[in-house]
Amino acid sequence: MAVTASEHPPSPLLQKLAFPFLCVSKASRACDIHAETPLLDEDVALKPYWTFAKKRRNGYEFPQTIAHRGYRAKHPENTMDAFVGAVKAGAHAIETDIHLSKDGVVVLSHVGQETVVQGVEVLIPSTQDATLKRCFGTEKKIIDCDWNYLSQQQTLKEPHASMPRLTDLLEYLAAPGLENVWLLLDIKIDNDADTVMRLIADAIEKTIPHPQKPWNHRIVLGCWAVSEALELINLMNIDNLQG
User: Fold this and answer.
1) N or C: where does the chain have the smaller number of CB atoms within 10 Å of the terminal CB?
2) Which of 134, 125, 184 is nearest to 163 (CA)?
């Protein structure tokens, strides 16, 4: 589904994020053109060229490596240690999960319940009860805790680490030498769509990007619910969708 911007000026959210529901045509050359000419017209919703396959000198393409919740084989997932470890290991991108605290802070954590299926531990995602139990050992819901409380919790897994905010990760990625590392934000459905989108935009606006790579060339949103998708479309002032 291609997206065309309306005649209205782009919203602050559009200036900072790439629309996540973009589909590139099947033609490989079309992808190359976007990847090789990243400075697109400001009035056009960006295609996330930075997520395309990388091309080697011999002309062959290879996929990018996305660190799912960071380098969680060696560090507690969705912690700054996991994110830094993933970048040092050579990951092209970081995937992480968005939640809101009681006082409106955008925090990074994944929730769910572990069960055993045929002798293998399987994580069943939770969409309604975003508690701290699996990673931090308490039954409290993230949305019921303020940032002061959340920041003091330590992961069950060693080496113990605290829960980061979105701004903590953005500040790290804004450092020199990391401008080509991009970010995939997985937005959970246990938060109000309007509120979570607004607070994500606020967090991005407050964090100064690398001077050579603005956030709208590094961030992709992943939404798993219609409400979040529609809210994003509304915030972007897009009125022309072409399938």
Assistant:
1) C
2) 134
